Structure formats: C-alpha cells, structure tokens
C-alpha cells in the first residue's frame, strides 16, 4: 500500500510539474509577443493594427490558466503547446499581412495624390502667362522654379497661389499637410518646376516608408517622389 501511494505521489508530482511547465511557457509566450509588438510599433512608427494584436495576445492568459488547472497527460501538454504556438504564429502573420496591406495602400494613395497635385499645377502653368502676371504671382512662380516647400505657405497671397489652392481643393496650404497617409498631419511637400514640368516630393514620410524602395535620396533628405509627365 505504501509503495502504491508513493507511485501515485510521484505521478501526481509529474502532472503538477507539467502543469507549471505549460503555464510558464504560455506566460513567457505572452510576454514575448507583447514585447515584440511594442518593438514593431516603434519600427513602423504607428500603432493601429499592432494595438489590436496586443489585445489579441491576452487570449493566452486563459490558456495559461487552463494549463495550470487541467490535469493533462504529457502528450496532451505537447499538443496544447504546439496548438497555442501555431495559433500565435497564424495570428501574427495575419496581423503583419494586414499592416503591410495598409502600409502599401497608404503609399499608393500618397503617390497618387502627389501625382494628381503635380498634374493640377502643370495644368495651371500651361494656361498661366508670366509676362501678364502681377509681381506677387511672378515671385511665386520663381520660387517654384527654384524649389519650394509649399506646405510652409499659409493663406494664398496672389492669383497663382489661389489657382493652385483651388485645384488642390484647399483654402490654405496648411490644410495640404493633412492629406497624406504616410505622415500624420505634418506632411512636408517640396515642389520644383522645371520647363513647366512639376516634380513633387513628400520628404518626411514615416521611418518605415523611408526604408522602402519608394524613397530616393536627394537634397540630403529622403522623400517619396512623384515626377509628373508633361501631359
């Protein structure tokens, strides 16, 4: 009888140890994924989708509690651990895919907006006459030819600036800063006109955009570039 009790005690101890192993593994997995999400948020420069991922990670806490309370066999623990790990990998991959889709969509929208803006300015300049323009409009045109940060402009001050603002559907150039997805409301857009062709650059996209192949180096600054066509 004593021998039987000893064996049961050992068996019970083994189950208890596996309970703790399974619980500790899931808790470490939870902490690791949370840290990974925080690092990724810093790298991407935004937190929308990754915050959802961090919330989803809390599903691991009930699993850890279940591992602690349930009395599985050793094989069952391995199955639970593998299923939990597989679920985490799947969720993480889906979150990354969704974030990459949003990221690429944001780049595409900004490129299209830059391209449309360049087209509008080209359209204005085709009908605009330097010789008959007022001095203030000429000064604006000269600054465009030298290269200028139009997001530093404020209210339109002359006919040329008013025409550009009207084409961009803005009442002030400060509003233009908020029309870009790859930077949160503080876009810096550089414009340079050469032979009536407008080149536009968003020079301060988020850090991750700067690492992509959409970004060029010029004027000692990275930028998201659109070089417009002549038509």
DSSP summary, beta strand count: 5
Would you tell me the overall average pLDDT?
Answer: 76
Helical segment tally? 8
H and E string: HHHHHEHHEEHEE
Gyration radius from CA atoms, angstroms: 29 Å
The residue fraction in helices comes out at 55-70%
Kindly name the structural category.
Answer: alpha+beta
Query: Cα distance, first to last residue?
Result: 96 Å
**How large a portion of the residues is in β-strands, by DSSP E?**
5-15%
Q: What does the overall shape look like?
A: rod-shaped
Q: Which stretches of 5+ consecutive residues score pLDDT under 50? A: 1-16, 215-223, 226-231
Main sheet: strand order? 1-2-3-5-4
Structure report:
- The chain is of the alpha+beta class and 231 residues long.
- It is 63% helix and 11% strand.
- It contains eight helices and five strands.
- Strands 1-2-3-5-4 form a five-stranded antiparallel sheet.
- α1 runs antiparallel to α2, α1 packs antiparallel against α3 (60-69) and α2 (48-56) packs antiparallel against α4 (74-127).
- The longest helix is centred in the middle third of the chain and has 54 residues, at 74-127.
- The N and C termini lie far apart (96 Å).
- Mean pLDDT is 76; it is low at 1-16, 215-223 and 226-231.
């Amino acid at each position: 009888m004593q021998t039987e009790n000893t064996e049961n005690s050992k068996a019970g101890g083994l189950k208890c140890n596996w309970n703790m192993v399974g619980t500790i593994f899931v808790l470490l997995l939870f902490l690791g994924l949370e840290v990974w999400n925080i690092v990724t948020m810093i790298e991407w420069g935004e937190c929308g989708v990754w915050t959802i991922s961090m919330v989803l990670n809390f599903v691991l806490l009930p699993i850890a509690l279940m591992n602690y309370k349930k009395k599985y066999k050793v094989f069952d623990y391995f199955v639970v651990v593998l299923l939990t790990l597989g679920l985490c990998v799947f969720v993480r991959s889906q979150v990354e895919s969704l974030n990459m889709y949003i990221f690429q969509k944001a780049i595409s929208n900004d490129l299209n907006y830059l391209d449309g803006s360049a087209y509008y300015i080209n359209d204005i300049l085709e009908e605009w006459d330097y010789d008959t323009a007022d001095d203030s409009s000429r000064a604006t045109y000269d600054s465009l030819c030298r290269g200028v940060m139009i997001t530093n402009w404020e209210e339109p001050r002359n006919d040329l600036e008013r025409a550009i603002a009207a084409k961009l559907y803005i009442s002030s150039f400060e509003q233009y800063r908020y029309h870009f997805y790859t930077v949160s409301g503080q876009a810096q857009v550089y414009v340079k006109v050469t032979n009536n062709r407008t080149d536009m650059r968003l020079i301060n996209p988020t850090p991750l955009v700067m690492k992509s192949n959409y970004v060029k180096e010029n004027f000692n600054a990275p930028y998201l570039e659109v070089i417009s066509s002549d038509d």
